[in-house]
């Protein structure tokens, strides 16, 4: 790692010089704005999307599983990132206004340089009892932030490429992109918890719905006080504000009902109500109305699938109070025989439906800004084609998510457990339990728990 990192440093310095030397435009002529996109810029787009969207997340997962391929893959990613910076500031043809994408490119040098430094330092194996444990933790935190940083930068890139989110359109863009990204993150976290996170859930002593309810409540408080601006109230202001009230009010109920390690359908019910509201959201364009309606239906389907998963697919409630289970009368019992799901079990297949629908609804909402839909409408595309494009992207994105989850459970120190299971299942724990009481003993599970950095 040390040798590879030192080879990357000159490339980073070159790309930093390229960023500093590249001229960002405050105003564009019509010729500059309509010039064709050259091959160099297309290479920059596809290269950086591959590195930050696939390569770095894969390297992060290999780091979590302690795979020997983590260091080589991340080193290649650093080198390609530097090359991508140079390409992004060497293109000719179409010019773009200065914006968040260019500023974020400069900011990204901080985590890149920090991760390079920490990687070299950790390979030296010095200060084992003093500084190194803290460096390990910091290295893990920065590494886990890479997918988020990459996602934000790719969104900024798409916004810059389309010339969106300027002037009066900024507020709407923020609402769509932040909330849409939130739904995608929600689906991703749900998939992780359902597939490889059950040991962490057991140790936390809280049901997944307790965590969901807290996030919904806090986001509702923020939404209640940020959706209305000015003195007059529009229909959209009223709808968005009352959605915030719905979230924090329902979130409070969800927290209460999810106490003592219990399951609750309240977060799913809030998702259904939000989807219904969005499906009947008034829009100026018919295309926009259709896209918002399908977004709402998809979100409602995600909430319904979550209720089915909680009430009918997950193990039934046990009336017995087990020592160490948080004294819940309704804690899910993982000791039942029907919780051992076969690889071809319908239950195993169904669990993917709620997170996938959340990912799809997030992409639909992100693609439903006024500027994007006006562009689609002006180019003669109908809502059916546009929606199918978004679902195609959702399939690709969810494939990447579950592939990374499976990679975590079958590589590095988890490879032995996966080979012992022998059924190709993603789950790492014995018995394939969905959710179980907190263990009464102090014995740690043999499998790796998400979040451990030791």
Automatic annotation (TrEMBL):
Transmembrane segments: 45-64, 71-87, 107-124, 145-164, 176-197, 209-226, 238-257, 264-282, 386-408
Domain DUF2427 positions: 25-125
Top-level taxonomic group: Eukaryota
Record Pfam families: DUF2427 (PF10348), Ytp1 (PF10355)
Domain Protein YTP1-like C-terminal: 150-408
UniProt xrefs under InterPro entries: DUF2427 (IPR018825), YTP1_C (IPR018827)
Keyword Transmembrane helix: yes
Protein name: Integral membrane protein
Lineage per the UniProt record: Eukaryota, Fungi, Dikarya, Basidiomycota, Agaricomycotina
Signal sequence coordinates: 1-21
